[in-house]
Amino acid sequence: MAEALKNIIAQSLECPVCLNTFTNPKTLSCSHNYCKACLDNLLECHGNDQMLRCPVCRAETQVLNQDVSKLPTNLALKSLIEDVKNQYHLCSICKSEDKPQAVVYCQDCGKYLCITCNNTHSLWQDFISHEVLAMSEIESGKVSVRRYRKCKKHPKKDEECFCSDCRRFACFRCVVMEHKDDGHRVIEAAVYESSHLKSIEDLKSKADKKRSCFQKYVDFIDDQKERVSNVQKQCTDDINKAYAESVRQLKEKKEILILEVKGRTEGVEKELDEMKKSAQEHITHLTTIADVLTNRTKVPLDMDALAAHDTLCQDLQEALKQEDPDYKQPLQSSKKGKSITFKRNVRTDELTLGKIVNAIAKNIALPNRKDNIHSMVSTPDSRMAVGRSTGGVEIFSADGQFQQTVFKDVNILGVGFLSDDRYVILDGSNNITLYTLEYTKLNVMFETLSHGEGGISNLTVDDDDQIYVSYMQAQKIQVFSPAGGQAVRVIPCDGYVPLQITNYNDNLIIASADTIRLIDKQGVVKYESTNVGFFPIAAVSQWNTILIAIVKHGVGLVSINEYTNELNHVQNLVIDYKIEKPELLWYYLHQYRSGEIALCTPDILYIFH
Questions:
Q1: How far apart are CA 161 and CA 159, in angstroms?
Q2: Neighbour-count burial of 198, counting CB atoms closer than 10 A to its CB (0-12 exposed, 13-18 middle, 19+ buried)
Q3: What are the tens digits of pLDDT across the range 571-602?
Q4: What is the domain extent for residue 27?
Q5: H or E segment to which residue 340 belongs
Q6: 16 phi and psi, to 5 degrees?
Q7: Residues 534, 537, 541, 544, Cα dihedral to 10°
Q8: Would you state the pLDDT for residue 524?
Q9: Under 8 Å CB-to-CB from 309, ≥6 apart: which residues?
Q10: Interior angle at CA 372, CA 366 and CA 373, nearest 5
Q11: Can you state the angle between helices 189-294 and 303-321, rounded to 10 degrees?
Q12: Which of the two ends of the chain, N or C, has the fewest CB atoms closer than 10 A to its terminal CB?
């Protein structure tokens, strides 16, 4: 009876997970106990989850910050385990009341044996193959004792059977009394144990294979990481080398550019210095003669004095005959110097700082086109299309050569191109029409606002073939797809009038009376600048920066500056270039793909090289 009780107590002290005696037992909210290490392993299996599911009843327990040590410790169970560990094991065979201490434990007999009984046990022929464990190894934890299950209802009976439906071990009497009904599948405990162990071994084998599979995957990832790391190191080394080389080249280029500027300007300065020297010599000559004459206090009487006086007077008269200075000559020389400018290279794919250039413009008069230019856009084949409100689109090359006129009978307010090179035409009635490359009109209708509803309109096309039409009076922008029909969306222009719109990457450039705005395609203003000037005209450069032209009305001077996508000033491209008819406000700005900048007034096209 005592031995059976010991077995029952021993089973109660086993962790359901590791099947060993509890170590630092922790209690879940469902009151089930587990080793702390076992709970750590279970929690780790759930990743970052802070909920721990009980393996017995599947109830959930929250583990704050995944710290199992914060769960309550079962102090009573821990104390009982310590007591059992400290209790000496006595021989199970000896019959005397004063039983000696056991020195070994036979796994097959399930008995503790003293020295005498162990010697007798080892001589029995049938017991030679039994597994015998030394108590010192058991107490040190090096080996585990195999427990023999005793029935809780019949402590003298071993649990020799296992009911697969009830999932419990039972003795033969319990099987007859409780597991004899249909549906109870009862097998020998040894058979179940063998099957269970085989199943566990199969699962472990599969787990080993799966673990090996994932380990190969982890090794593969490590290999890829190492390759990427090697690429990073190699690229970093290459970048550092390229940087050092680039710095060297930039320094050389800087010196060359400075010398070039010096060479160009020194020639002009030398011309101006020679003019200045000549003028100063004339001033000195006049001053000297005049001083000699005016400083005389007596009238010359003798012949020599009279002769000298007459000579000086003649010299002064000759000097006075020289024409007044001509300002055109120094102005012409200075014009050569002032036309010299530094064009910074803002392209990200080139190293050079830039180049020294002279801003030269070619003026192309548009005969019989007085005050009727209302649009300009670069063509897909790198030319410039200029639209006339009285009808027609004129095409010009980058060198200013007129090439052809198309859509002669259409009043043009806006021109754009789709990605397949189809024309998008906005006419004077705010209607949009699509044309093929062969100028054939397509039967696609767009529900735009009439001139009375929207006022004067403007047009641009983005890289996704979305068509944008702005209205000054309605203060909004309609967005259409090339399929036509109703606008797919409307962009409100809150608080400003959209005079001109230009597509810019995923944004729009809006030019108003005194402000340039960069808005996204939902209408949110990202950047704006009121420091660019009155009635600015915007365009996109071939380097994907922003060009802004300002005309000084009344004096007829135009300046063109370059800005970043955040509307920060980069450089001056054209400074105070003289144009005709500066009182008109409708101007258009674009850049050829070859680099020339085109500025169109209502009747003149200026091309800056």
A1: 6
A2: exposed
A3: 888 888 888 776 666 789 999 888 889 998 88
A4: 1-87
A5: strand 340-344
A6: -65, -15
A7: 80
A8: 93
A9: 293, 296, 300
A10: 70
A11: 150
A12: N
CATH number of the domain encompassing residue 434:
2.120.10.30
Q: Quick one: tokens of 501?
A: 């719109």
CA-CA distance, 508 to 7, in Å (whole number)? 84
Is 97 inside any structural domain?
A: no
- Buried-exposed string 421-456: b where 16+ CB fall within 10 A, e elsewhere: ebbbbbbbebbbbbbeeeeeeeeeebebbebeebbb
pTM of the model: 0.47
pLDDT at 6 over 70: no
Residues 315, 398: one domain? no
Please name the residues in contact with 408: beta carbons below 8 A apart, sequence gap of 6 or more. 391, 392
Residue 183 domain flag = no
Distance between CA 313 and CA 290 in Å, rounded? 9
On whether both 317 and 249 belong to a single domain, the answer is yes
- Burial letters 137-172, b for 16+ CB under 10 A, else e: ebeeeeeeeeebbbbeebeebbbebbbeeeeebbbe
Position 87 pLDDT exceeds 70:
no
176 is a domain residue: no
Report the alpha-carbon distance of residue 549 to residue 534 in Å, rounded: 10
342 vs 571: CA distance, rounded Å: 9
- Compute, in degrees rounded to 10, the torsion defined by CA atoms 151, 157, 162, 167: -10
pLDDT, tens digit (0-9, with 9 covering 90-100), for 365-397? 775 556 678 899 999 988 999 998 888 999 998
Domains identified in the chain, total number: 3
CA-nearest of 410, 409, 451, 413 to 429 is 451
Which tops the pLDDT comparison, 122 or 457?
457
Q: How confident is the model at residue 185, as a pLDDT?
A: 85
Residues 71 and 5 in one domain: yes
pLDDT at 103: 87
Spatial separation of the C-alpha atoms in residues 50 and 266, rounded to whole Å: 79
Both 483 and 446 in one domain: the answer is yes
Residue 133 domain-assigned (yes or no): no
Q: What is the pLDDT of residue 357?
A: 53
Burial of 95 (0-12, 13-18, 19+ CB in 10 A): exposed
Predicted local distance difference test score (pLDDT) of residue 469: 96
456-469 pLDDT, tens digit each: 999 999 999 999 99
* Measured distance CA(510)–CA(525) in Å, rounded: 10
